[in-house]
Amino acid sequence: MIRGSNLRLTRQRKVILEELRNVTTHPSADEIYEMVRKRLPRISLGTVYRNLEILSETGEIQKLELGCTLKRFDGIAENHYHIRCIHCDRVVDAPGDFDPEIDHDVNAATDFKIIGHKLEFIGICPECNKASEPI
């Protein structure tokens, strides 16, 4: 069973989860599909998409809908921050701890009922930065 739900951890979901947790690259659904196909050659792209949505809705993984146009997925379900390269859209985990106090501070300062936050740092990754340096 998937924690906090009545859904079973099917073989497809288990493989998707294992493959996603074996990388730190925050892959897209298409990239996960290519990774999973090595172990489950007959799996469809639709099955991967459907199961990624289920796994994110149940809190097993995170769906990242950051400033880039592509949805990415993170095998680390706990709240944490990310850094995205503005040139290549590479996403990595940001160092440092998640700060739940931000929710409280913003909640106290506004009329909004704050239910959480996602913080994305943007910058230029080392590879893109090196490529843009004059020779």
Q: Can you tell me about this structure?
A:
It is built from 5 helices and 5 strands; from the N terminus they run αααββββαβα. The chain has 2 domains: 77 residues, Arc Repressor Mutant, subunit A (Orthogonal Bundle); 57 residues, Dna Ligase, domain 1 (2-Layer Sandwich). The longest helix is centred in the middle third of the chain and has 13 residues. Strand 3 and strand 4 form a beta hairpin. With 135 residues, the chain is an alpha+beta fold. The chain has a 3-stranded mixed β-sheet, with no helix packed on it. Strands 1-2 form a two-stranded antiparallel ribbon. Helix 1 crosses helix 2, helix 1 packs across helix 3 and helix 2 crosses helix 3.
Radius of gyration, whole Å:
17 Å
Tell me, briefly, the overall form: flat
Regions with little confidence, pLDDT below 50 for 5+ residues: none
| Strands in their spatial order, largest beta sheet | 4-3-5
- What percent of the residues sit in helical stretches (DSSP H or I)? 25-40%
Going by CATH, the architecture of the largest domain would be Orthogonal Bundle
Look at the helices and sheets and give the structural class: alpha+beta
Question: Which topology of the largest domain does CATH recognise?
Answer: Arc Repressor Mutant, subunit A
- The overall strand count is 5
Order of helices and strands: HHHEEEEHEH
Tally of contiguous helical segments? 5
Major β-sheet, in short? 3 strands, mixed
**Mean of residue pLDDT values:** 90
Determine and state the CATH class of the largest domain: Mainly Alpha
Our count of domains comes out at: 2
Distance between the termini: 55 Å
CATH superfamily of the largest domain: Winged helix-like DNA-binding domain superfamily/Winged helix DNA-binding domain
- The percentage of residues in β strands lies in 5-15%
